[in-house]
Write a structure and sequence with these properties.
This protein is α/β, with parallel strands linked by helices. It is 42% helix and 16% strand. It contains twelve helices and eight strands. An eight-stranded parallel β-barrel has the order 1-2-3-4-5-6-7-8, surrounded by four helices. The longest helix is centred in the last third of the chain and has 18 residues. It is globular.
Length: 250
Amino acid sequence: MSRKKIIAGNWKMNMTPSEAVKLIETLKPLVKNEEVDVVFCVPAIDIIPAVEAAKGTNICIGAENMYFEEKGAYTGEISPGMLVDAGVKYVIIGHSERREYFAETDETVNKKVLKALEHNLTPIICCGESLTQREQGITIDWIRQQIKIAFLNVTADQAKTTVIAYEPIWAIGTGKVATTEQAQEVCGAIRACIGEIYDQATAAAIRIQYGGSVSASSAPELFAQPDIDGGLVGGASLKPDFGAIVNYNK
């Protein structure tokens, strides 16, 4: 099965609304590539101006987080309905920074995945291991646990529409990149795990990204791997270099 590459930028807590519009204007001509789905996942306050700035382009706007309730007394949270109404198509769920700093768990990740799918938002479901976990040789076991819980009660048809982002925590923002072999090994294990949960057709359909200090120089080799279907890009997505990552195949 031929899977269309998806390359998403995770802006994290960067860019004011006016800066976001300026960056999108700069990147618009640089990220044109009909062979790739391009997503900018932006801070909540940037979503509406970003959606407006991206109109008429190949850029989709995503959110960096959402809550798993429809509405209510959840001060500071954003509901899936709010995201949909604002024009959001994708939402990052379970990023390692959300887990580390904001006490997200595998169980809350699962709740968010189910709620995103209910609203036809495409979840970008993050998983990854720490340096200690890699050194202890438990990377695959750890990732399989994250995946199995994230997809609890998700149907096969729903699973096919999701995106999984494998990000070794030790490679996020550090300049360190997993070797191509390391990245492919884990992404292949994720696809095998999806095959066990569902079936081979579902495993073949789902798109798996690699994230963690992806650059214009590392992208072509990473994205050529059989189980790597694009990238979740941090710091480089805030620079014109992101255009070279999106156009890795040119």
